[in-house]
Amino acid sequence: MVAALLVAGGFDDIVDSDSDGLPDAWEVAGHGPIDPKAHGCSPKKADFFLVVCLRHGMTHESVKGTLDQLKKFFGAMPNKNLDGSTGINVIPVWGNPASEADNAKGYPELYDHCMKDWRGIGHGVLLDPNTGGGGQANRPDWAGCSNNWWTIAHELGHQFGLDHHAMGSDDVSPLYTSLMNYDYSYALDGDSYKVHFSAGQFASLKLNESDLDEALPYPEADLRFLTKGPYHFQIKPDGPNKTLIDWNRNTVFGEKHVRADINDGYGTNVGPLLEAGKAAGSPVLATLGNDLAVIYPVLHKETDLAKWSAAGLSPSRRGALVARLVQNGKLGAPIKIVPNGVSGDAHAVEAFNKLFVAYPAANGLVLDSFDRTLRRVGSVVAKDAAEPTLVRTTGPEQLWLFTWNQGNVEYRQMKPTLGRSLKLDITSQTPVAAVWHPRIQRLLMAVTEPRA
Fold first, then answer.
1. What CA–CA distance (Å, rounded) separates 353 from 371?
2. Using CA atoms, how far apart are residues 26 and 235, in angstroms rounded to an integer?
3. Exposure string (b/e) for 113-145, b if CB count within 10 Å is 16 or more?
4. pTM of the model
5. How far apart are CA 143 and CA 132, in angstroms?
6. Whole-number average pLDDT of the chain
7. E strand or H helix at 25
């Protein structure tokens, strides 16, 4: 790792023995604001000047702990120096502070002011009082950061040319252990002080999420960090230099040609955004054959959406249900599957090759069924207004309707008509969530309780 060298003119006669981006002449005789005796720079050890600029109201003392930890972090780098030492020497210097009026400006606007004497020499950071993390770098010698050493180290990594993924790759990998990887920016192996810039230990292994091998050619001890946050993968040793990992989390180890999302620790890119339209409540998604159906409530007068307090459906403000199919990545035309009378949010699920949609209405809770063209083919009414949750179970295939009403949870079964309501010995403060787990053949339910 080297500090960026930003100087005008030719480079043929520049000698930089320690490859730190600071010419030997600067580190011996000085250059601009550099005073070798005062700053302690040397042509035999990697150094870089960290130009620290503060937002108005901050003091030097308020960032002392942050700078001390940064010096310790870079000092522990494994690079070998010409003087026999290891590590990179961070030399903090003070840039021009921001004025009170400057606090209304973003960090890119304050570059010229804060870095006035150190442009082309040091790496600058504008710090704000927040200590919780977060920062940005917009050029190879400038960043805006919170007063947090992990964040500053990350943004300096960008200034040094590092990215959020390993060199030569466009994907975030759980094996890229660098603090440049958002997954490991603040902790590695469950320890905030184990964060580091990656030395490329796992660089030779290329992971393809469409064709994964659950046998990794590394000792189990080297991969234990994967069992901690944010991933919590399960691993098993398989000899001294081989480890089995459960990439798809199915408790089976050593599978080949596995397809799984393995880099969702920080976030997952789900693809292009499809805007379905304005809604007057919560949407619901359901599969329908090879397609995806999105169903959402709408008001009869879209102008009512201009006022948030009047945007939702209720018994006094009824609306309709609209459905749109996503086919081959494209959003189909809106179809008003329930034209009127809807008084709240719906729920939907695919069962028996049909789409079932439950919703509250004036005459009770309605359960409609639709074919794959979204044409209604059936309808039944439960004589109780309640919040619905639909679940399809398998072995054999069955459809269940759970309802929540003022804390009580009840259920009905379609067989083939809607059966009578039975009360569960369960209460919840809000509508329940439920899902069928096919491997263990159990229906799982989440409820909320009246405690913090």
1. 7
2. 51
3. bbbeebbebbbbbbbbeeeeeebebeeebbbbb
4. 0.65
5. 16
6. 91
7. helix 24-29
